[in-house]
Design goal:
Elements lengths: L19 H5 L8 E9 L3 E8 L2 E8 L4 H16 L17 E3 L2 E7 L13 H22 L17 H16 L6 H20 L12 E4 L8 E4 L2 E5 L6 E4 H12 L9 H15 L3 H17 L2 H8 L9 H13 L1 H9 L1
Helix pairs in contact: 3-7, 4-5, 5-10, 6-8, 7-11, 8-11
């Protein structure tokens, strides 16, 4: 999650709810706690701006508590920083470790980075190109850091595409839930409209499902590259944060997914001029070719056509945090389908 507040300030976190004393004693320059304010809350971690007598830090509480995977993330960011990638590795404790286990919970202390998030609307075409280059560098440097031997290049069934039959069943389930809400609001009406619209699109395009083995070359990726995980100072990236989803995936698909988040307009259209600059720079930095990007575009388009994660959160988990994203995200799937050739050309031209 981001290292700066993404919502209005909230009350200070009472010290008693976090083991700050025990935690800070592990660090030579931790100091004594002065304030601790929540700045980020996600499914995999919670974040706080911790101010002590020795300065400000980002305190990350890893909710999953997987010590091995957290240590792997930390190892990767330390080595990426040595290669010049803008990241924020954690502070080492007095024993040289970076994961503090206190009361059965895993924490990490990072230097505080001042910066701001920038959406694609705030980026020029030139800055969009630099963003594409940055992600390409991340992918190539991760190959050096994590080792190419860990990249699965052959299809093993792990990246199979969604099947229309399963999606139709989910649409029916979500439609029933949207129609049954009491009281209904504008979101529920939009959800019903988009679900019916998506079902019609899938009926028309079911034969375009990517076949098994159509995914592109896999490698280590950030796993969650979007505006809230990238901090800027001025016009230049200062830090890529939140490496919790570091994993092996089709690399070019991460590039396409990121573009679909950075460069989507509120109306659900992609800014294709910026996408073109971004994709050209990414291909050059990552060493990807046009067929690889074309295949990634097709697979991500199909993924978007079959994906209803925001409605799952709302209707199945009663979690409305992502509701504001739904109008643009749901419109994008429709617009992308209708302008498929133009979108593909922007990524490959």
């Amino acid at each position: 999650m981001p290292y700066v507040a993404t919502a209005p300030p909230v009350a200070d976190q009472p010290f008693g709810l976090l083991p700050l004393g025990d935690l800070l004693r592990r660090y030579e320059y931790g100091g004594e706690p002065l304030s601790c304010r929540p700045v980020a809350q996600g499914l995999l971690n919670r974040g706080y701006r911790l101010t002590t007598t020795h300065g400000s830090f980002f305190l990350k509480h890893h909710l999953d508590g997987d010590h091995e995977s957290i240590s792997r993330q930390h190892h990767a960011t330390r080595r990426l920083q040595a290669l010049g990638v803008p990241v924020v590795p954690p502070v080492r404790d007095t024993e040289g470790g970076t994961v503090a286990v206190v009361g059965g919970h895993c924490y990490a202390l990072h230097p505080w980075i001042d910066g701001r998030h920038r959406t694609g609307a705030q980026l020029t075409p030139a800055a969009s190109g630099r963003l594409g280059s940055l992600l390409g560098v991340v992918h190539t440097c991760l190959e050096q850091v994590m080792g190419p031997a860990k990249c699965r290049l052959a299809y093993d069934g792990a990246y199979d595409s969604a099947t229309p039959a399963d999606t139709f069943a989910l649409i029916d389930e979500l439609l029933a839930l949207a129609r049954g809400r009491t009281p209904r609001d504008g979101f529920d009406s939009l959800a019903e409209h988009r679900l019916r619209e998506r079902r019609a699109l899938l009926e028309s395009h079911a034969h375009h499902r990517p076949p098994p083995g159509a995914e592109t070359a896999t490698g280590w990726v950030h796993g969650d590259f979007h505006p809230l995980n990238l901090l800027y100072r001025g016009t230049e990236p200062a830090a890529i944060v939140d490496w919790d989803r570091l994993s092996v995936q089709p690399r070019a698909e991460e590039a396409v997914r990121a573009a679909a988040i950075f460069f989507v307009r509120p109306s659900g259209e992609l800014d294709l001029e910026k996408v073109r600059a971004y994709a050209r720079a990414y291909r050059l930095a990552a060493g990807s070719d046009v067929p690889e990007l074309a295949a990634a575009v097709h697979r991500v388009w199909w993924e978007r056509l079959n994906d209803f994660w925001i409605l799952r959160w709302r209707y199945l988990l009663d979690d409305r945090r992502a509701d504001p994203q739904f109008p643009a995200v749901s419109a994008l799937a429709v617009w992308w389908t209708r302008r498929y050739e133009e979108v593909c050309e922007a990524f490959t031209g």
